[in-house]
Fold:
Amino acid sequence: MEPVLSKKDFVRRYIAGEFGNAAPTWNDLDEYKTAMPWSVYKLGYHQRYHIRNREAGGPGEYNVCWKQVGADWHYLKTYRGCKDLYISAMAPTERTIIQGEVQQGVWGWELTYSLVRKPMREALAETTLTARGLGARLLLREAMNDLSYQWLEHLLGEYPDHVVEFSVYSTCWGTVPGHNTVFWEVRYGY
Structure:
């Protein structure tokens, strides 16, 4: 597989489904508005959304009500100077088991993680733990269902020298049925 060399490249490939189970995601506000009837029907009126930034570390908005997405989108564009946004459904954060990032290291898997039930940036800022080698594998094997664990092994094999960012939930959720893990990012060199 081609390495992921930028956040923009990643997002394009993420939306296309290259990295497996993901949050339902739309390229821009127009695409989101077109999908809105489906989204409300499929995900429910109580579903929250995340306005995300294609610039690594750039500002975004979490937990946005479907009625507020357009206003928050325009606020980020107009007042925060965000040029390249996209929208994802918020995952069931309250059902988080473990989340973080893992990569293949010299001594096996290297895992940085949190057990805090908040969006990942907030969770890792509050509590960051680490595990390596067999310990990392056992933690993830225990939390992930079989399909998710097998897909993680696939991602680490197909994208050497990449970091895989993930969240594991106590329920299956996302674009691929039967997975309890969302793979948020696969990154190399950015």
Observations:
- The chain has two domains: 24-89, 93-187.
- The longest strand covers residues 96-105.
- The beta strands are 25-26, 48-53, 61-65, 85-89, 96-105, 108-114, 129-132, 163-169, 181-187.
